[in-house]
Amino acid sequence: MQQLREYKRFWFVIVLGAIALWLQFVNHQAGWAQILVTVLGVFLALLMFIDMVKTLRSGKFGVDLLAITAVIATLAVSEYWAALIVLLMLTGGDALEDFAARRANSELQELLNNSPQTAHRAVGDDIADVAINEVVVGDRLLVRPGEVMPVDGTLLTGPTTVNEASLTGEARPIDKQVGETVMSGSVNGEASIYLRADQTADNSQYQNIVRLVKQAESQPAKFVRMADRYAVPFTLLAYVIAGIAWGFSGDPVRFAEVLVVASPCPLILAAPIALISGMSRASRNGIIVKTGTTLEKLAQVKTFAFDKTGTITQGKLVVDQIVPVTAISQADLLQLAASAEQHSGHVLAQSLVAASTEKLLPAADVNETTAQGVQANIDGQTIRAGKAEFVTDKPVDKADKTAVYVSAAGIYQGYVSFSDKLRPEAKDTMADLHRLGVHNLVMISGDRQPIAKQIAAEVGIDQVHAECLPADKINVLAELPADQRPVAMVGDGINDAPSLATADVGIAMGAHGATAASESADAVVLKDDLTRVSAARDIAQWTMRIARQAVLIGIVICTVLMVIASFGVIPAIIGAVFQEVVDTVTILYALRARTDR
């Protein structure tokens, strides 16, 4: 709506300006042309004054006061064509700035689409589908294989395996036994289960994520734009020069002539054009930056926080270690495990099959026990692969990470462990961010502390926060001290959506990530390449350097013109034309932000 309003103002000025030109130079009715421009100028000045009051009430400063004064002053001394030029510049700059500040259309649509809509309520032997908001605490609910847990609850039957990636971001399967709790939004495994509803839908974990995002969106961080920081001193300088010129000359026209050349073109045009140019350059590099303000913040970020799975890592469990405890070779141990698991749909089974370099052996009499493992007959031997207690009754040295244990003919043979593979570019990305002035790199993960610390050490991250749910991630960001702000958060999943919205700058890895994360973020990396994050920081810093230089060049030129105009040698209409020259210079300089260094 804001963008539409500014475009309407711009076209309103163009249309009425064209009519005024026709009245004066074609119909030779200068009086009507002046009246039309005067009414237009007073009307828009009033609208700008209302906007300025709203801006001041929000705690921000702008350049509207100077612009309003310039319009009113030129109209008061009958320099209405100069006023029209100023109006064109102002409304055109506002429309351009709003174009640069594009926003996401549907911030939470993916979260809402994926949230459970119905539940299977069980009453005795009868199963009935009910709307999710009709579930009450204590209801007995059926959850079929592959379905999303509708509410937070306690397992009445089991065991089962659940995927909590949408909540914690971690891809590893979680085994759940009877009596354990499950969270809404987690995906059930391959066995139908019954659960008792412990919470209503509105109070369950998945809906809590939606609320967290909404809350973060409604409480944006305060931020002072570069143009606003220059606005106050520039406005005061213009009024001082204009007042002195009027005071010494006694001619109010002199006041208008100074303010016309002081119209804040560099602040209104140069910065937005530099930002649009920087956004265009970012887009060419596979990074969608949604607003110009995002680039300003990104250039100032002191802390980068990263989710682990899917961001620093690839989000896929791969075979990490093969540890035999008998004379069996590593290749044979992996072959046995993969052969036994080859018909299973379990995520670890798929990883085993993908990792095996040997031909898979035929498996007969395959029997899979949910959340425990697989038993099969291979080459006349009973092979078991799965949890340690499933494959052997004897105590074994367990891996400190996700693992599949293997036994043959009742003899424990060893285990195959898994890890989430690091992105090959992760370490270089962290080094680049350090080089670009980011001294605090943080990892916030839902994974266990030892694994999170190991990953952080390998890539060069400074702080680690592990075993975090979405609300915990928000708390970590909120508790960062002032000297480590602004903060940028980088993530890829639905579970990252609240923290992306909470951070000063949210960056979503959108190549394979959830739409909810992308829409809650301020910037989206379209390519599956973490180095784009450091590239975004580099582009933001370069863009703001060019924007700052363009603004300062414009201010210096305007100041020189104000001093000259104070002696009465620049008529208002000529001053307005000079302003367009200043516009051209600052715009051409600002466009440098489109190019690489």
From TrEMBL:
<comment type="similarity">
    <text>Belongs to the cation transport ATPase (P-type) (TC 3.A.3) family. Type IB subfamily.</text>
</comment>
<keyword id="KW-0472">Membrane</keyword>
<feature type="transmembrane region" description="Helical">
    <location>
        <begin position="551"/>
        <end position="578"/>
    </location>
</feature>
<dbReference type="InterPro" id="IPR023214">
    <property type="entry name" value="HAD_sf"/>
</dbReference>
<feature type="transmembrane region" description="Helical">
    <location>
        <begin position="7"/>
        <end position="25"/>
    </location>
</feature>
<feature type="transmembrane region" description="Helical">
    <location>
        <begin position="31"/>
        <end position="49"/>
    </location>
</feature>
<keyword id="KW-0104">Cadmium</keyword>
<dbReference type="InterPro" id="IPR008250">
    <property type="entry name" value="ATPase_P-typ_transduc_dom_A_sf"/>
</dbReference>
<dbReference type="InterPro" id="IPR001757">
    <property type="entry name" value="P_typ_ATPase"/>
</dbReference>
<dbReference type="InterPro" id="IPR018303">
    <property type="entry name" value="ATPase_P-typ_P_site"/>
</dbReference>
<dbReference type="InterPro" id="IPR051014">
    <property type="entry name" value="Cation_Transport_ATPase_IB"/>
</dbReference>
<keyword id="KW-1003">Cell membrane</keyword>
<protein>
    <recommendedName>
        <fullName>Cd(2+)-exporting ATPase</fullName>
        <ecNumber>7.2.2.21</ecNumber>
    </recommendedName>
</protein>
<dbReference type="Pfam" id="PF00122">
    <property type="entry name" value="E1-E2_ATPase"/>
</dbReference>
<dbReference type="InterPro" id="IPR023298">
    <property type="entry name" value="ATPase_P-typ_TM_dom_sf"/>
</dbReference>
<dbReference type="InterPro" id="IPR059000">
    <property type="entry name" value="ATPase_P-type_domA"/>
</dbReference>
<dbReference type="InterPro" id="IPR023299">
    <property type="entry name" value="ATPase_P-typ_cyto_dom_N"/>
</dbReference>
<feature type="transmembrane region" description="Helical">
    <location>
        <begin position="255"/>
        <end position="276"/>
    </location>
</feature>
<keyword id="KW-0547">Nucleotide-binding</keyword>
<keyword id="KW-0067">ATP-binding</keyword>
<keyword id="KW-0479">Metal-binding</keyword>
<feature type="domain" description="P-type ATPase A">
    <location>
        <begin position="115"/>
        <end position="214"/>
    </location>
</feature>
<dbReference type="InterPro" id="IPR036412">
    <property type="entry name" value="HAD-like_sf"/>
</dbReference>
<feature type="transmembrane region" description="Helical">
    <location>
        <begin position="230"/>
        <end position="249"/>
    </location>
</feature>
<dbReference type="InterPro" id="IPR027256">
    <property type="entry name" value="P-typ_ATPase_IB"/>
</dbReference>
<keyword id="KW-0812">Transmembrane</keyword>
<keyword id="KW-1133">Transmembrane helix</keyword>
<dbReference type="Pfam" id="PF00702">
    <property type="entry name" value="Hydrolase"/>
</dbReference>
